[in-house]
Sequence to fold (241 residues):
Amino acid sequence: MKRFRFSILLALSSLALLASLFLLWLSLDAPLPTAAAICARLDRERYVSGVSLLASGPIQYQDPAAINAPQNTWWFVGRNGDSIHFYTLEKLAGFLWRNADRAVRYDLSETEQSLFVRPMGTYFLGTEGTELTPVIVCTDPSVVRVEARLAHLGMSEQENAQAAMDRRGVSPDFTQVADGVWVSSSVTVPPSEENASSLTIWCRGYDAAGNLVCANPPDPWNEVKPWHPNHLIPSALRCAL
Fold:
């Protein structure tokens, strides 16, 4: 009888331990042992499948010891033929991964653009601006070099966005890390002179001869054209702050 009671208590204790471990797993945002598994789960939540990861890399901040700076975060880029996917993951305990930010998907059938850019690992520095790692994906195989300019633009700057870009825009250097994928080191984008602003990114792609192949937005940087409010928030480029 005592042995039977001991077995029951042992079974109940094991179930309680498993339940506690499961709750701990959920509280940690359900980490998994591979980054690909986390990305696949995020895809299933958006009813997407068949995504192949193209490239990834660590997000390294200029001051990794800063208070609230994200730790052990990585960017990932994937494609499933019809769409481009950007993920930001956090690495836990050396082998577990979990989602660290909102995954973003761009549907190629809904846009004529071939350049896609995301500010990964966004870290707010208060009055100093915003630190981030720009990642660019280009679906045009003739593009071998990309460049971008980033700035926070206020609403009153819509009439002359080019001037604002020229005055305080940041132009990082990009390195190609895979076919059609480029990344720069972490950059700090200074804040706008206005309280309300949005992070705007202009990028362009060039072929081996140096010819401009594609741009997003399509207006060339060296031309000042009437500024439309929609340009401030291009669907493929804007990250609202």
Remarks:
- The two ends are 66 Å apart (CA to CA).
